[in-house]
Amino acid sequence: MTSRLCRRAAILSLALATASVLALAPPVRQQEIEQCLPGEISTWPDGRDRPAAGGQLALVYRHAGAPAGLDEAVVLGTVQRAVQAWSGCGVPGQVVSEDAAVLYPGSLVVVQWQEAGSRGNFGLANLAQRTLSLGPGAFQLLAARNPRHPAQQTLQMVISHELGHFYGLMAHSRRCVDVMSYYDNGRGEVCSTRDGGSYKAVTEYRALLPTACDIVRCRAVNPPR
Ligand SMILES: [Zn+2]
């Protein structure tokens, strides 16, 4: 069961814990986002990648229960940017209306605000129920503790990450910059950067959208039909 869920959806605890001053990201981070070097892909042993169910993704967004300060158009735009960015994987993906959702049995994912579904995280993918639950409480906490932190960036990262699970990426990346990464396993092992620098050098080292290596992994597990 745990492998079906993103156990590390609390990936953004750093955003809650650190000062609100955003340090400038090192240039190597941008290179890592844009380029996936041979042999660079590395994952934590926490899941096995498999093709996206249904061979396509249709997403419907339900705004009910969203926290104040995140309006519907903003969240919808964030979902659309994530789907657009994952399109490099080759699996067709689109955001559909509530009316059109019935046309996509088996490939529909409901993006919703639900505390229970998110289990206190910013977001949680449930592949069995086909829901991507965003956590109103986590975003309210972020706004309260760190009002200068751009919540929209956190939202983008969370949606991009959780969507990656629906594209079939079940293992988390050990490359800090990948949107599918988590930073440390709680047992002293940490993610890697190309220059050996610490992910802690910036508030969030992880990209907001899938990186070149996220896309390479996604393509590998979803070969063209
Ligand atoms: Zn995850």
Structure description:
This protein has about 220 residues and is α/β, with parallel strands linked by helices. The chain has one domain (about 1-220): Collagenase (Catalytic Domain) (3-Layer(aba) Sandwich), CATH 3.40.390. About 30% of the residues lie in helices and about 10% in strands. The protein has seven helices and five strands. Strands 2-1-3-5-4 form a five-stranded mixed sheet. α3 crosses α6 (about 150-165). Zinc ion binds near residues 6, 8, 161 and 165.
Main features:
disordered N terminus, five-stranded mixed β-sheet, 225 residues, globular, 7 helices, binds zinc ion, Collagenase (Catalytic Domain)
Q: What coarse outline follows from CA principal-axis ratios?
A: globular
Summed over residues and divided by their number, the pLDDT gives a mean of: 90
Helix proportion range: 25-40%
Please give the domain count.
Answer: 1
Name of the CATH architecture: 3-Layer(aba) Sandwich
C-alpha-based Rg, rounded? 16 Å
Number of helices: 7
Q: Report the CATH topology name.
A: Collagenase (Catalytic Domain)
Sheet with the most strands: spatial strand order: 2-1-3-5-4
Helix/strand/pairing category = alpha/beta
Q: What are the secondary-structure elements, in order, as H or E?
A: HHEHEEHEEHHH
Q: Ligands bound here?
A: zinc ion
Stretches with pLDDT under 50, minimum 5 residues: 1-14, 17-21
| Biggest sheet statistics | 5 strands, mixed
Q: How many strands?
A: 5
Q: Give the termini distance in whole angstroms.
A: 29 Å
CATH uppermost class: Alpha Beta
Roughly what fraction of the amino acids lie in strands? 5-15%
